[in-house]
From TrEMBL, chain A:
Native source organism of the sequence: Neobacillus niacini
Lineage per the UniProt record: Bacteria, Bacillati, Bacillota, Bacilli, Bacillales
Descriptive protein name: ABC-type nitrate/sulfonate/bicarbonate transport system ATPase subunit
First and last residue of the signal peptide: none
Domain ABC transporter: 4-228
Keywords recorded for this protein, A-Z: ATP-binding, Nucleotide-binding, Transport
PANTHER family referenced in this protein's UniProt entry, alphabetically: ABC TRANSPORTER ATP-BINDING PROTEIN, TAURINE IMPORT ATP-BINDING PROTEIN-RELATED
InterPro entries for the chain: AAA+_ATPase, ABC_transporter-like_ATP-bd, ABC_transporter-like_CS, ABC_transporter_ATP-bind, P-loop_NTPase
TrEMBL record, chain B:
TM spans (from-to): 12-29, 63-85, 92-117, 123-142, 219-240
Taxonomic lineage: Bacteria, Bacillati, Bacillota, Bacilli, Bacillales
UniProt entry keywords in alphabetical sequence: Cell membrane, Membrane, Transmembrane, Transmembrane helix, Transport
The species this protein was found in: Neobacillus niacini
Location relative to the cell: Cell membrane
Protein family per UniProt: Belongs to the binding-protein-dependent transport system permease family.
Chain segments annotated as coiled-coil in the UniProt record: none
UniProt cross-references to Pfam families, sorted A to Z: BPD_transp_1 (PF00528)
Alphabetical list of InterPro entries matching this protein: MetI-like, MetI-like_sf
Keyword Transmembrane: yes
GO cellular component: plasma membrane
Protein name: ABC-type nitrate/sulfonate/bicarbonate transport system permease component
PROSITE patterns from the UniProt entry: ABC_TM1 (PS50928)
Bilayer topology annotation: Multi-pass membrane protein
Amino acid sequence: MSHLLVDHIVKSFGPNEVLSDLSFSIEKEEFVTIIGPSGSGKSTIFNLIGGIMTPDKGIIQLEGNNIIGKRGSISFMPQTPSLLPWRTVLQNVLLGAELQGKKDRDKAIEMLHKAGLADYVHARPEELSGGMKQRVAFIRALLSPQSLICLDEPFSALDELTRLEMQKWLLSIWEDYRRTVLFVTHSIEEALFLSDRIIVISVKPTKVAAEFEVPFNRPRDESLFLDEEFLKWKRTVTYSLKNEGSDNDGEANRRTYSFRSI
Amino acid sequence: MNFLIRKGWRPIAVLILLFILWEIIVKITKVPDWLLPAPTMILNEIISGWTSFYPDLVSTSKIAVEGFLVGTTVGLVVAVSLHLVPWIRDSVYPLLILSQNVPIIVLAPLLVIWFGFGLLPKIIVITLTCFFPITVAALDGFKQVPYSHKHYMLMAGAGKSQLFWKLEWPYALPSIFSGLKISATYSVMGAVISEWLGAEKGIGVYMTLASSSFRTDKVFVAILSIMVLSLLFFAVIVAAEKYFIRWQSKGGNVE
Ligand SMILES: Nc1ncnc2c1ncn2[C@@H]1O[C@H](COP(=O)(O)OP(=O)(O)O)[C@@H](O)[C@H]1O
Ligand SMILES: [Mg+2]
């Protein structure tokens, strides 16, 4: 059974049909990345899985259980860190678990140490850099008891160097604490570097345009970015995105496909 | 305290200068005492009349504190229910604003007719002057909670009460304290006005007696004590704010 099953989802906001027949699934402990142009409905997918919106049609199942409209079934890391300024790093990291009624302080401290935040356990978020804040937000998601972690473009607000650092950091932490991850990004390189599988979605109508199994062995490091094979894959994925846009006409459409490359 | 000394000396110096000027003008122009008493005369009255004035001061302080506490409670309860129940907000908020357009002085006789001369009408007067700044400030604070924070809490499965107590309430606290500061100073004024409704003791009573017997020096003593009392209340709230909100950095940029 898939860990997460999203089946024939349709979602409109008034006359604006954002998701039209979207289907995909994720296996246990798999790292899956959804890549698609901005405005294609990626955050909407998360809102549906997170239960704060309900689809017009379709099935969403977590480990075989219907989770439509059920909040709190997944753990979440947003694009902005959204840390509570009156809480210390430790208290912030425990928030997700606290909401579910199960805190583990010792594990939190241990994880903060592993994450390179040992000096900041009792600091307040305002003392942290952007990258550190995102680490805290990720640890908060990791410490939440839910089995599936959803990350919505977590690094897109960071500068390039920090972003690369964060990607490497995320991989190393994830390889230690394996969880099922659904990751959303703009960046093809980020997707190739991090994931086991990439789902390319098309816009208007939004549905799965292509899927790629990423063949690189783990653990991965940044030398991968210069690998011949990696560049080939990058071309392939870029192509699939471009192609998918070509049957729509006009400049306006093409503009939405401009991807940020790292 | 250090802070007060560092920042406070300028206005204090100006104040002292003003008093000296006042003294000189009164002495030179020989204004009659009942029109404008000299500062030294007021000071004299404070010292010599202290024992008889003291009970009035205590009485007013007490009623002001009581009224402030009731007003704060009412203000917060109103704010929270307006915030949590949208249909109450839509239907009641405009009326609340309207209620602030009715001068308390005009309401006072009505309150006496309805509730007599006891403690209740006084508390109502103070509550009416106090609660509105708190309600407005708290509502404003609730509204300022960033969408991203709320979105995270909802995605992470926060219930309505978790959302309120873990996010909205702490987020609104700095705003609430701004409201409390205003209300604390209003409460002294409210207390004095409420004593005009009829009381045995209090600065309001003292003031009425003083002005009807042309003891202008005593009127000034009353005014001065109201100012000092307001300032004291304000300082207490500032201290509480410092204690409860240690997280807010200057110009805090929250993310
Ligand atoms: N709550 C909402 N109400 C109305 N329209 C929305 C809402 N949320 C998203 N949309 C619309 O859905 C589309 C996809 O948005 P979103 O899921 O945020 O895209 P992405 O995350 O891929 O950039 C956009 O056109 C947006 O205007
Ligand atoms: Mg988005």
